Amino acid sequence: MTGLGPPPILERWAARLLSRAPDADAALGDLAEGHAQHRERRGRRMAALWYARQVLSLLRHRRGLSGAPSERQPFGSGGRVGLGLRQAVRSLARRPGYPAVAVLTLALAVGASATVFAAVEAALLQPLPFPAADRTVVAWRMTPAGERRALTGAETAEFAARNSGVAGWAYLLGTAEAAFLADGQAVPVVTNTVSGNLFQLLGVEAHRGRLISRTEALAGDADPPPPAPVLLDHAFWIRQFGGDPAVLGRTIHLDGQAAVVVGVLPEGFGLPLPATAGMNATADVWRPLREEMAALARPERMRDQDSDDRGMALAVLEEGRTVPRVEAALNGAAGASMPGEGAVRLTPLRADALAAARPLVRLLGASIGMILLLASANMAGLLVARTAGRQRELAMRMALGASRLQLAGPVLAEGLLIGGLASILGLVLASWGVPALAAFWPAALPLPAELRAGGAVLAFGSLAALVAGLAAAALPAWWSGRADALVALRSAGTVGLDRRVLRLRDAFVAAQLALAVTLLACTGLLVRTFDGLAAVEPGFHAAGVATFDIGLVYRDGYRGPADRAAFVRALEERLLALPAVRQVGVIAGAPLRGESFIQPWGRAGEPPTAWSGEAEYRVVSQGYFPAMGTRLVAGRNFTPADDRQDRRVVLVDQALARRLEPAGAVLGHRLALPVDGDAVEAEIVGVVESVRFVDLTAAGPPAIYVPYRHEASRRITVVLRTGGDPAALAAPVRAALRDLDPRLPLFAFRTMDEHVAAATAGPRFALVMLAMLALVAALVAAAGTYALVAFTTARRASEFGLRRLLGASPGSIGMLVLLPALRLAGMALAAGVLGALGVGWLMRGLLFEVSVADPGTYAVVAGLLLLTVGAATLAPALRAARAAPAVALRSD
Q1: Which of 711, 714, 720, 758 shows the shortest CA–CA distance to 617?
Q2: Which of 223, 457, 535, 866 is most buried (most C-beta within 10 Å)?
Q3: CA triple 251-256-262, angle to 5 deg
């Protein structure tokens, strides 16, 4: 070799190392050609250094790949799995920055996804806590207008007498608070009242004792009735009685009435029901109905708030029967005896119980997929960049005899290793996140089953991390197996990024940004929704108002309306005497409590069969409207003189007034109403502003108000307005109530602001959850964008130095990094908006007064995207702009 060739000793080493490689002569020729080019451009010394690096690289890879044939089995065979993982560990340990970023971002995504998956599992996958859950349906009566109405007890009894493919019917009357006498003190407890056959029908078995039989549940004609058999909830049994088995057969007192404990329900039992059922899934005590279902009805069209309209019918289908067939049979039966009442609609219990939470569950389920895709795209982009930086190494390994599978194996092993580490860390995060999610899940959006971090959640998190890791490594692994054996030699010492690398990098960055845009846009829509809810005029002023409930149900103290009205007057006077109280009023069914008291009404002189209107029916004292801050629009408020039974008066809201007289005043008009099964007429003496009783998102039916003395409901809500902090009234109010009647416990003392917050809990919770997921997505996307742009910028350092050498300004070089990133941001914005439109369709039930295609939201998201991309690419752009011309001279 002449003096113009490479050093002889290095040339001999290269020949020896390439002796077993295919096309060895061509490879040696390319090495010589590369040396000559370096010598011509940069001198003999730099060319020798370049040649030495190539020989050292060959030596390292020869040691890593040479050996007996048994040691060169394809990656994935039993003898090579451990070796492949050890190689992956060593490879990742040499540059820990990349694996640390990949593990942390994937773990964050897996932890968030597993936490959210717990809600999806509770909604769709967990079995309900009784055997007949899959065959249990809720029965509804459909009105001609397509609205659902609860079946009456009489209708339920009639269906139960027919053979329509139903194994049995049960009736649920609702949830109520009761005073439980314990150690001489009245303790508030929650009770559910159901037909005695409910638990046998559902297949529930008692944890202790027995269930209630149908015959013993009925009270008969005895006066007073015999003690009612009751079942205790398992948690209440532990809390109140310390789990004492001797509680069976013990007589307890609820609202002054004796009851006998016959059994304890199994742990975890709950009966998920629709939010409109007026009944909790769980209760401290389960009471039986004391009369037959057929007796729970008023005459036709004469139902009022004391009837069974708040009840709900459940049916358990016979084995092998389907909902459509049974529904058709029931409608055929109903048509023969109840014409004109509308069809019966049966809905599966789980589906009905999930109805309120379904939009949120859909949104969270879609978010899971987007977060995992984003994390996988982020990791795949990092692996592509890492593999691109090793293309010469991979080509040399192939030149030394490595198979394609051997080349791809280490990349797959890295993905598997990163996925395994991320799954461990992600499950730790999920073990903290799921209890937090359960604690903050809004009661207004009940789930059919318990929200917990069970085996399914852990399996999902582990599988998601491993699949994401392997999926992210699949493309780089396939690409690494296609390495050209002579790429390293023909590169002449430069390591550039070809078009495939750039396209893949751009695709992964754009995918991450598009997914982040989708989540940010959905978050923005919920922000607009929450702003819209905050601007709603509910018909009252919540600030400074507190409410609490009491039940006047003692037989020996509040037997008639006059006794209850006298107690309410005395209570209002006692509370008004408190220093901080300004106004006091009473209502049966306060706003935003989830209660609806719908009843028909007609114009004066119309028979009940001709009544065409429906309205919320509320019983109030004359102090209610000032205490609640509901504005009197026309006429007058109730007065003590209106308590006379011979002259009935009512107040109506603006919605009903407009319906009665669109162009004039309604004062003096008369309405026909049902009261205790009779049709009565009442004069309209005042009009108040419309109140949103059930839901802030909808106006609801119009409202009719009657004086408390006319109805004197047993269960009432007391409203207090104060000039200070309403929460501070709890102690003095309890003391005042105790002075009047120590048997009456105070239930649910809350401020009206708390009720308003509960009414907006669904959108608020969805906003918080989606904002957290969007923040995770934005961080992962920003980190991925920064990592890939920084890597590419570093690989182009010699190019930027050469451009500076040729006279390019720092600003123009910085724009070479920034402008492509902004172009990607534009593409991601378009794709993300399309994704947000699709996901927004799933969350329509959570939106209020905002369109899925709201332009203002997308404009804000576009600005956030540009800021995020600009921040992520700013540092690499500045480094590129400061590239020194000497970098190009030092490049090999």
Answers
A1: 711
A2: 457
A3: 25
Token readout for 235 is 């948690």
H runs (alpha helix) in 725-809: 730-740, 752-759, 761-795, 797-805
pLDDT at 584 over 90: yes
- Give the Cα separation of 479 and 387 in Å (integer): 8
| Angle (deg, nearest 10), helices 404-440 and 97-124 | 50
Count the Cβ atoms, other than its own, within 10 Å of residue 807.
8
Distance CA 838, CA 842 (A): 7
| Contacts (Cβ under 8 Å, ≥6 apart) of 467 | 419
What amino acid occupies position 310?
Answer: R
Q: How confident is the model over 258-271, as a mean pLDDT?
A: 90
Residue type, 471: A
What type of residue is 573?
Answer: E
Residue 319 sits at φ, ψ, to 5 deg, of: -60, 135
Alpha-carbon distance of 548 to 584, in angstroms, equals: 11
* DSSP notation for 792-815: HHHHTHHHHHHHHHTT--HHHHHH
Let me know: does 297 contact 153? Beta carbons within 8 Å.
yes
Kindly report the number of other CB atoms within 10 A of residue 495's CB atom. 16
Determine contact, residues 407/26, Cβ cutoff 8 Å.
Answer: no
Give the residue carrying structure tokens 């370049």: 50
Task: Provide the whole-model pTM.
Answer: 0.72
Please list the alpha-helical segments (H only) found in 188-314: 198-202, 214-217, 234-241
Cβ-based burial of 605 (10 A; exposed 0-12, middle 13-18, buried ≥19): exposed
DSSP assignment string, 659-718: HH-TTS--TT-EEEEEETTEEEEEEEEEEE-----S-TTS--S-EEEEEHHHH--SEEEE
Structure tokens at 283: 């209760």
Which CA distances in Å does 108 have to 377, 454, 663, 869?
14, 19, 61, 21
Identify the CA nearest to 327 among candidates 133, 141, 128: 141
CA distance 316 to 293: 16
Indicate the SS3 state at residue 112: helix
Q: Which of 102-106, 152-156, 274-278, 692-696 has the lowest mean pLDDT?
A: 274-278
- How far is residue 523 from each of residues 366, 509, 520, 779, 835, measured CA to CA in Å? 13, 21, 5, 15, 13
**Sign of the alpha-carbon dihedral angle for 866, 869, 871, 875:** negative
Say which amino acid occupies 715: R
Q: Which helix (H) or strand (E) holds 586?
A: strand 581-587
Joined together, the tokens standing for residue 142 give 């459909």
Label the pairing between strands 678-688 and 649-653.
parallel
- Is there a contact between 694 and 742 (Cβ–Cβ < 8 Å)? no
The token pair that represents 764 in the structure block: 């608020």
Query: What is the token pair recorded at 499?
Result: 């078009």
264, 207 in Cβ contact below 8 A?
A: yes
pLDDT of residue 546: 92
- What's the rounded Cα separation, in Å, for the pair 377 and 385? 12
- Mean of pLDDT values over 354-373: 83
R_g over Cα of the chain: 37
How far is the C-alpha of 713 from the C-alpha of 418, rounded, in Å?
65
Tokens of 39: 């010598």
| Lowest pLDDT segment from 106-120, 309-323, 377-391, 761-775 | 377-391
In sequence order, the 6+-apart residues with CB closer than 8 A to the CB of 425 are: 103, 104, 107, 110, 111
